[in-house]
Amino acid sequence: MTSWQSVLKKSITTAGELAHHLDVPEEEITRVAGVYPMRINPYYMALIRRHGAPLLRQAVPDIRELHDPDGMTDPLAEEDLSPVPNLVHKYPDRALLLVCSECAMYCRFCTRKRKVGTPGMAISRQGVRAGLDYLRRTPQIREVLLSGGDPLLLTDQRLDELLAELRAIPSIEVIRIGSRVPCTLPMRVTRELADMLARHHPLYINTHFNHPAELTAEAAEACGRLADAGIPLACQTVLLRGVNDDAEVLRRLMRGLLAMRVRPYYLFQADLTRGTAHFRTTIDRGLAIMRQLIGHLSGMAVPTYALDAPGGGGKIPLTPDYVTGLGEELRFTTYRDIPCAYPNRLPEDLRAGRDG
């Protein structure tokens, strides 16, 4: 058993085990974990003990998870968009392939909390083969995102085999892996893993950090190994009430990610997943935070604020409105709230058709 597997095996999964580390309401946690599983590995537990609430809220079950009348079991309608089990075909040229049913930590705000870590998420080699067969007979799909659960919890050998099978499909041009492992179990990113992944370019990894306290030396080493292997890294952060719904917290997070060679990609409005209402902010709050990021951070550090539309409608960008008028002039305000204008008309010779 490798070191990362040993760490994962020591994960906390019951209220009694958690009570040895934190002062928690054991009965409530038992009730919640009976519906939505808990897993907190020793690495992330050490961060919780060091940094408190922003990390604790992401990992420790909350009784409010059982009282969310507005939440949806499958908010993104993934089951309806699955032509074969564990493959989601939402966009014309892209598909999502679920290849692992477990995560290194079960995030309390997870979109797939209905099934990740439960018997309801059964992923077998036979099921993955059905997904690969669908990709072979659907040549309009040119990009595949591996997700789960967390694909980096597969063994190196199994992941290598899977990537090789995808690479053998002529229509697949790009492979992406969605993984929170660099944040929650960074010791999993070994040199052997990075070297193996480098054999399957063009390969991209979207990881997931929500708070600057997660940007540890271990996480930086994991991301550095992947970047050194030529793998472009991006981060998909979720806007979470009581965790990172603060412009200064997000500024520190985004700057820290860039320093770790990870490009901020999306800042997601929390999905309408049942059991996550206590994490959701208002859209107004998210837009106000974006106004405090745009112009105050390098453009490379500013993520796209977006929501994934309920019912499988896809990602919708949410951008603060800087436009105050549009006629023959575009009137707008700068990030410093200074009024400006820009001509919105062609020069006279072009309007008259005299452009040569």
- Average of pLDDT: 95
CATH class of the largest domain: Alpha Beta
Q: What's the alpha carbon Rg, rounded to whole Å? A: 22 Å
Tell me the span between the first and last alpha carbons: 73 Å
Question: Can you name the CATH architecture of the largest domain?
Answer: Alpha-Beta Barrel
Quaternary class: single chain
In the predicted model, the low-confidence regions spanning at least 5 consecutive residues are: none
Reported by name, the CATH topology of the largest domain is TIM Barrel
CATH superfamily of the largest domain: Aldolase class I
Number of domains: 2
Beta-strand percent range = 15-25%
Largest sheet: 9 strands, mixed
Secondary-structure-derived class: alpha/beta
Give the overall form. globular
